[in-house]
Amino acid sequence: LTGAQDGSVRMFEWTRPQQLVCFRQAGNARVTRMYFNSQGNKCGVADGEGFLSIWQVNQTTSNPKPYLSWQCHSKTTSDFAFITSSSLVATSGQSNDNRNVCLWDTLASSGNSLIHAFTCHDHGATVLQYAPKHQLLISGGRKGYICIFDIRQRQILFTFQAHESAVKALALDPSEDYFVTGSAE
User: What is the model's pTM?
Assistant: First the structure.
């Protein structure tokens, strides 16, 4: 799966030189993040205008439409994570009201899909990592702060400054004992 500054999203197969599917044409908002769900049957694309779009991967048409497309943040959606079996999605980004980390129910109608919005990360959340074993979300922000959320209780557990500049990367070890952050500096 490839995404570009021009907004295009294309899927390739290792053994074929041509694309299999073009999910988005050039001329859309820049792609900020893309993931497959854990089952591999859906892919999601976040973009610079605050949208998250999700497609079924096994499409037979050359230009399929997303089955879900929401504006999750008013400025940009920088990252997202599939939670459970893709029916719950967490997003990070920048919104005018500082609700920069959100939980969404993909099975609910678009008007009722926002489950919870966390007010955190002045100037926006840049990265997001889900820890399924502990049911935690870890987010990094533009000012170097890390927030850890309990998604069951829908509350922020910890906030601390890890860097002097924007957090650009988060990684979680498989046993969920440690996480690592990387920043713009």
Answer: 0.92
